[in-house]
Each structure stands twice: as structure tokens, then as C-alpha cells.
Amino acid sequence: MNVEQVQNTHPELVSAETPVLQVQNLEVTYYTDAGRAKALDDLSFSLKAGEKLGIVGESGSGKSTLALAMMQMIKSPGRIEGGQVYVDGTELMALNAEDMRRSRLQKIAYIPQGAMNSLNPVMRIGAQMVDAVISHVENESKAETKERCMLALESVDLARGTFKMFPHELSGGMKQRVCIAIGILLQPQVIIADEPTSALDVVTQRQVMETIDRVRKKINAAVILIGHDMGLMAQFVDKVAVMYAGRLVEVSTVRQMFTDPQQPYSKALINCLPNLDNKGVFQGIPGLAPSLLRLPGGCAFHPRCELARDICKTSRPEPQSDKSGRSVICHLFDKEAQNEPSS
Amino acid sequence: MATLLLIARRFGFLFVVIWAASTITFFIPRLSSVNPVRERFAELARLGGYNPDDLERIVASFSKQFGLDRPLWDQYVDYLGSVLRLDFGYSLNRYPVTVTELIMQSLPWTIGLLLVSTLIAFLIGNLLGAIAAWPRAPGWARSFSTPFVLFMGVPPVLMGVLLLFFVGFRLKLLPLGGAYSIGLVPEWSWPFAMDLLRHQVLPALALILGSIGSWVLTMRGMGITIQGEDYVNFAEHKGLRGWRIFKDYYLRNALLPQVTGFALALGTVVTSAIIVEGLFALPGVGTVLINAIRANDFPVIYGIVLFITIAIATIMTLMEFLYPLLDPRIKNQ
Predict the structure, then answer these.
(1) I need a surface site. Which of A101, A166, A224, B65 has the fewest CB within 10 A?
(2) How far is it, in rounded angstroms, from Cα B315 to Cα B115?
(3) Which residues of B touch A71 (CB under 8 A)?
(4) Which residues of A fall within a CB distance of 8 Å from B256?
């Protein structure tokens, strides 16, 4: 089991299966008037087919930037400064604009927070699905394309009649499922779901998450779930990555993360979760997330860290991994001392 | 049933608008104490012989014939009758020509000029405005709209004069005025059509150049709002080609409020058309209206203003029925 929790920064540890998604040393900088803001800082991780990774972090930690960077949709003043994104062996960063356009949805699909207005209000649902298909697939007859869309709708539990409807005739959860259906039209290897359940009520949230999980199994895609709902993550993903100031400060299995977090920031995050033992006591993390324009030297978390030592203020920690495959960015992390939690 | 009721209500409203407009049109020219018949014959009398008694008798008999001697209220009731019949009888100034004849002769010129130039300005302005706001458009294409924004400040009259002077007079590229060359007889032939078109270019430009700018500005504003919408971003995530995103997701949505603007523009452009027609000596409704106002030719004023009112109010009503087809979120209730 734990061998399968594949290492993020050490692809050489992956022996049995090659990952379907590999992100290496990805760097994105926003060139603002106030200065340069490094939104993604030398970020690496990998995912195997069918694996589910949850990415959590405060607002501004770079979660959405990561999603946009993988799709190569970073808009000015942002710029991808370096790194590679391999999807099923193809290096996306090396593609020209036209090939990258073709890769979107076909290799790597993005499911937006669709409850609000991710669907064009003046086009029928069907038209918005068909135009996605015909932008990628040539020599498919109209009837085949339509049937493909119908099957996608059915696989997310929507009636075939949805094809002819307008977005305003659907509920928030239905719109979200339409977005999922669009995401799986071309059976991509990687699906990025960017806060797919925000603005939905909890019952609908569960339905939407189950839908994503079901279609993931069907097409065996790797799923990246971006969000800040720890509870939702715990139920849904295999691995959790905690993002802080543009870096993945801890990547570990759900069990490790919730029972034995290693990085002080992820520890603090887990401690924030209310539990029944200390009911009524609300805990937060002291201080504010740092501005990316003026990151503290050394470890970016050290001003808020209770355990900070001198080395944290001067030296920048690098990712380290233990045998179980968890990766932690912290000077205090002792990769040899870890006891693997039994699973 | 509900739809029928809606249609009935809309047309009822249209009827009220026409009634209100025609009432205002009736009373405003009457506020002046000038008797158009007297004016007309006084002028004739100055040119020819002079016999005050004859003049008074002629005026009295003509006033009687046109009903101008009756109380204003009676005239108003008669007038409402003629509004319903859409027939205003004879022109006072150009008797025995009827008002309907005058309108029918001049209307094609105005409709041709107005509709075509408003449509051209709408299409060019909105396209330029959309491109100006589209972040992926090349820089040269985005700056293309700047001169038109500058032209916005130039009124159509001044634009017309400038065009006349430079293009017509100095460069002698296009004729200075008139609907077609003197000596030509209107006919369905290629040379006549070309001649006609050449005469329409400058007046059309005078109307178009100034109005493109406002389309550019409103469209650019809409465009900036729309391009930030989630569905435009998601369209890119879907891997659509740029042209398709521009056309179906961006332009289509940004254009919705502009269509309402188009109907409104048709109403306001009538004002500029009157001036431009005068400037270029075109035999359109505007020229006829100006002459009628100068001569206090009530029936002609009534006829033309009522015609414009009905035309615009009808277009507005039709737009209301058209709008749900453009935007499915709007349903007539």
C-alpha cells in the first residue's frame, strides 16, 4: 500500500508504475507593479493513473495558479518561469500553442467551480458540449458526437433531455455535473477539479464528489482536487498536499495527514479542525499568510512557526521524503525517525 | 393565451405611445400665432400685386377649407381622426400635393440612408470595440478603433462640411450634393445605381464616422466585463479555438445590450439625418420636414412626425418580442 503512495520529488522511487502526471520544478512569477511575486516556487509532484490528490492551502497560497500553470493558462502579468509538466509522457510546456490547445480537455481537463456561471448563458448545454468535442476530434459524425455527449451526461446522472436545456434551467448541482460531463468528454488522463463544490449545499457536495469519483474510476484518470474543505478531502482523496507560499510543504496519505502531520503548518491546519474532544474551543493559526511580494527569508513559515530555530530563518528547507513516500519541507523533519502508521 | 394577452398589452401600449406623441405634435406648432395660409399669400402678394381685401378673402376661404377657422378642440378631434386614418390631406404650402405623396416621395431616401448607415456604424463599431477589449487580439487591431473615438466629438454637420470640403471640393472624388446627377432620369439601370451610390457615400460617412465611436466605447466596456466571466475562461479550458471563443462566448454575450442600443440609435439618428439631408441637398423626409416647419405647414409636420413615431415605436415593440430569442434567460411574462 505504502509503496504505492508514490514519492513526489523523487520519481526514481517509482518503480512499478510510471506516473501519468509528473510536475517538475514548476515556477510561476507574477510581475506586478509592486514587485515580483513568486506564486509557484520550484514545485514538483507526480500522480499515477486513478490516483486522487487533494491540494489544500490558504487563499493566495498558489492553488489555482498551479491549476492554471498546468493548463498553461497563466495570464499576464504572470509568467511560467520554468519546469516541466509531463502528462502520459508528453511534455506540455514544450508544446506550441495549437498543440497545447489540443491537449486541453483531451489530456488534461479542468472542472471549474461551475455552480455559478461557468456555462455560457445563451447557449444550450448540448451546443457547449458539442463545440468542445469538435474542437478536438475530427472525422466524427454529428450523430456520434451527440451520442458521446449523451453518454457523458448519463455518466454524471443527468437526463438526456439536459442536452437541449439552457444553463439557467438547471440547478447549481446540475450545472456542476454538466461541467464534470464536459471534463470527461474526451477521457483525459488528468482531471483538475478547482473547488468543484463551493457554493453548493452539503448534500449536493456529496453527490458531486461521488460523481467525480465514479467517472474517475470509469476512465481511470488521475484527479487533482483543489479546495480548502479538509473534511471533504478526508473522505475523497488518497493523498493530501498542503500548499504554503507557492510550495507543497507536506504531501502524504490522508491517514498520515490526519493522524500524524509532520510539517508544523500542516499540523496547525489539522489542529484547526474542530473535534468532539475539545468542543467549543476554536483554534486558529497565529499570524497571516505572508505576502508573496515579500517572502520571509529561509523557511517562509518561520515567522508563524512555534518551533522555529535559527536555521529556519536563514536557510531555505528542501523537500525530504521518508520511506512511506511522504514528502515534507521542514528543517525539523527527520525522515529516518518516522514510524509508518499501519494501514 | 398568456402570449396573446401579452401581445395585446404590448400593442395597447404602442397605441398609447402613438396617441401621446401625436397629441404633443398637434399642439406644439399651434402655440405660435402664425397663420400659415396668411403667410403664404402675404408672400405671394409681396411678389405680385397688392390688394388687402382680396388677400383677406383668399385667406378666409382657404382657412375655411382647411378647417383652420374652427375651434382648436374641433381641429384636434379631426386631427385624431386623420391620425387613425393615417391621412393628413393636403399640404398647406404645396397645395394640391397631399401629405402622403410628400412622405412617399421622400421616405425611400431617408430609410435607405438611415438604416444603412446606422447598420454599418453598428457592425463596424461593435466589432472594433470587441476587438479593442479582446486581450488576445494583435495590438494593431486593437488600436484601430482609436480614431473613431476621436471622431465621436465631431457633430455630423461639421463632419459633413469637412467631408464636403476635402473629399468633394478639393479632391473632387465624390459629388457635392443631390441624390443623383442632374440630367439623369431615375431608372433601374447599373449606371444610375452607381451614380446614386456615389451621391450617398458622403452623407452616409457624415453619419457613420461620428457614431462608430460610441459603439466602440460601449462595446469595449461590455467586452471587458464579459471576458472576465467564468464561461469565457472555461471555454479556453475546454480547448476551443480562439475564434470560436471570441464569436460564441464573448461577442455573443457582449452584444446583447447593444441590440437594445441599436433600436434606440435608430430613434436618435433621425435628428442627425435631418441636418445631413439638408447639408447634402437630399430629397429625404428631413428636408421636407424642415421646409414644413419653416412654412408652418401643419399637415406635413403632423404626417412626418407621426410616421417617425409609429416607425420607432413599432421597432421597439418588435425588439421586445425579438429579445427572448437572443437571450433565453429573458422570457416574456
Answers:
(1) B65
(2) 12
(3) 237
(4) 122
